[in-house]
Amino acid sequence: xxxxxxxxxxxxxxxxxxxxxxxxxxxxxxxxxxxxxxxxxxxxxxxxxxxxxxxxxxxxxxxxxxxxxxxxxxxxxxxxxxxxxxxxxxxxxxxxxxxxxxxxxxxxxxxxxxxxxxxxxxxxxxxxxxxxxxxxxxxxxxxxxxxxxxxxxxxxxxxxxxxxxxxxxxxxxxxxxxxxxxxxxxxxxxxxxxxxxxxxxxxxxxxxxxxxxxxxxxxxxxxxxxxxxxxxxxxxxxxxxxxxxxxxxxxxxxxxxxxxxxxxxxxxxxxxxxxxxxxxxxxxxxxxxxxxxxxxxxxxxxxxxxxxxxxxxxxxxxxxxxxxxxxxxxxxxxxxxxxxxxxxxxxxxxxxxxxxxxxxxxxxxxxxxxxxxxxxxxxxxxxxxxxxxxxxxxxx
Length: 396
Ligand SMILES: Nc1ncnc2c1ncn2[C@@H]1O[C@H](COP(=O)(O)OP(=O)(O)OP(=O)(O)O)[C@@H](O)[C@H]1O
Ligand SMILES: [Mg+2]
What we know:
Layout: H1 23-37, E1 44-48, H2 55-68, E2 72-78, H3 85-103, H4 107-122, H5 146-163, E3 168-173, H6 180-195, E4 200-206, H7 210-217, H8 221-224, E5 225-229, H9 235-247, H10 255-265, H11 269-282, H12 290-314, H13 318-328, E6 335-336, H14 337-344, H15 349-361, E7 365-366, E8 372-375, H16 380-387
Parallel strand pairs: 1-4, 1-5, 2-3, 3-4
Antiparallel strand pairs: 6-8, 7-8
Helix pairs in contact: 1-2, 3-4, 3-5, 4-5, 5-6, 6-7, 9-10, 9-11, 10-11, 10-12, 11-12, 13-14, 13-16, 14-15
The structure holds adenosine-5'-triphosphate and magnesium ion.
């Protein structure tokens, strides 16, 4: 088997040749597009899930479906890198309008809307100035109030789309990066376009606490979006994700070999891709056997420890690493914050709360409910117990 033909796609946001177990999500999305296209009412979608579970690639697939349905899309946009979220929205808006202009002959209408985008971006403090070759149109979306302006910007785009008999899709990844004020503005804007039955949809994705963050930003956010948890694949789906990419190239898996990998990967798509890639490179012939699996097992584990877990562990300060190790020492998740503090060796819970907050900020842990924490990275506890047990941190 040639390395260059390796069909597996371990990594971040790499489209797998077979997107397993997500048919229902894609069907639901298609029906959202259909309903909005005919000016009906349907809620936008917000996905949350652990690292490596397949959020980004699901959004990429939806991007394709929407384009096929004649919609303009923002492409999958990771938010949070710009100091003001409005810069990102201005860029997305300009992109959507240009795409609609290309697809439908509505140049003048788009030009006016681009003028609104320009005025919107001019009032964004410290924002990247968009290179738009149009005069700003004053009086719409340029009050300087982020909520009101975003509402007006989205309405403007929605009206262009409705006029063209099309629709627009915002694909927002790592949405948990947006602060509360930005999330509030996003909620308001999507509420406004949905009230007006405009063909504007959002698919957001983020870490497990995204829903709670949205609800903290706007209490009505619970009714504004459909929330979906993107979880591990079932065994049968994981089996397909593993064997199908090879099968299309004429390479099979022995039944017990596939079952073993499905078990090792615990339903996590990223792990399946890592095993798939290493097996393809190591196996000499079809079918791939259990002894091939045994041969690559340690290599894959080492690789995961180094790249997937190690790099994340290094993001944490010494005290935070100790906090992570304390969590792992407690057994089954979720972990009581008070118990973590005790395992950390803190005299009081307050002593460890800055570490907890910082780890949440860094996206390494999240709080499923008040007084509890859990990891955002699948099987992180197992990694920590093996490589960084709490006993290895000494005592203070
Ligand atoms: N349904 C699936 N079937 C097969 N492989 C998948 C599936 N979903 C994701 N993958 C693979 O899993 C890996 C992780 O996917 P992706 O980057 O979309 O995860 P993510 O949830 O966005 O992770 P992160 O939170 O770190 O951004 C990629 O290697 C991708 O090819
Ligand atoms: Mg992602």
